[in-house]
Amino acid sequence: MFSVLQALIDIGLFEGWTAAGGGEKDVNELAKLSKKDMEPELLCHQLRLMAASHIIQETANDHYIPTPYSLAIGDKSTQVAPALRIRTDHVASCAMHWPDFLAKTNYQKPRDDKASCYIDTFPEKKSFFERCSANPVHQESFSSFMDVWAKGKRPWPEFYDTQALLDGADLSNGSPFVVDVGGHHGIDLMRVAEKHPDLPAGSLVLEDLPEVVGAVNLTTDKIRTVAHDLFQEGVEQPIKGARAYFMHAVLHDWSDETSVKILKQIAAVMKRGYSKVLVNDIVIPSTGASCYQAAMDCLVLQASANERTEAVWSKVIEDAGLKLVKYYPDGRGYESVIEAELP
């Protein structure tokens, strides 16, 4: 289904339909709205699946009306179309290669970030992030997906008490409140800024790779950006003594060994009795994992990473020289905020 959807996105059908104001169209009209020519008879086959999948609605033979979802696909401002391309850019090929990769590696759990199913799938033989860095199209689909995905999650200040965190913070002399490590385009910090409108300028720090923070369009002076590569040899965490170091869906991209290294880098600049590490990620229950949690676990396994149970999170955090304080679930069965500090 997603390959068909991507083909229709590629010819500009949804974009043209949305630009035309939506409304009921027949197949020939939709063919004319598209930027690239697709034979109408072929288009009939494709649209039939889109209707059966509830992406559009069939009204009569070869007649269709859009849904709010299909209109969003055609609206560039939503980023839905490039976000959907993550499936054809990254996910689908890797998923299809998974059985062969497991056979090739004797059905052992992949633990080496540098020998993952993802690397083995594509001719570039690069990791996910290396491949994104080398190809702007792949980076766009990943970035757009992350933005759309984040908007659909419950804001973390709704289930973690950021007010208590702020009450214990010393923000004098420009001291940082929250550092979002690997924070992408800053939506999680924006949610903090919205909840606490009186925060000083620059007290929220967005860290990510230079090419990521260079593309950020911030609408508040409360957030400042810092370019930082977690894996650059000999470079330590540049922001020291912050009240909190926050990471959302970062550690689930990496093996336990690499996650420990990332946490150790942060622990080295924390202030004992003051600084917190806040990991916003999936915590798989010992029984009864949701379909979302289990599916994400199998997805990131293809990058030699994994989602984690409480027991595994405890070990990763302790191996990094930190003490686990408490889990704060989001109430929806998706993610939790894991609070840790120096012992």
Automatic annotation (TrEMBL):
GO terms for biological process, alphabetical: methylation; secondary metabolite biosynthetic process
UniProt keyword annotations, A-Z: Methyltransferase, S-adenosyl-L-methionine, Signal, Transferase
SUPFAM superfamilies assigned: S-adenosyl-L-methionine-dependent methyltransferases, Winged helix' DNA-binding domain
Catalytic machinery residues: 252 (proton acceptor)
Alphabetized InterPro entries for the sequence: COMT-like, COMT_C, SAM-dependent_MTases_sf, WH-like_DNA-bd_sf, WH_DNA-bd_sf
Signal sequence region: 1-19
Keyword Transport listed: no
Domain O-methyltransferase C-terminal positions: 165-322
Signal is among the record's keywords: yes
Single annotated GO MF: O-methyltransferase activity
Protein name, UniProt field: Putative O-methyltransferase
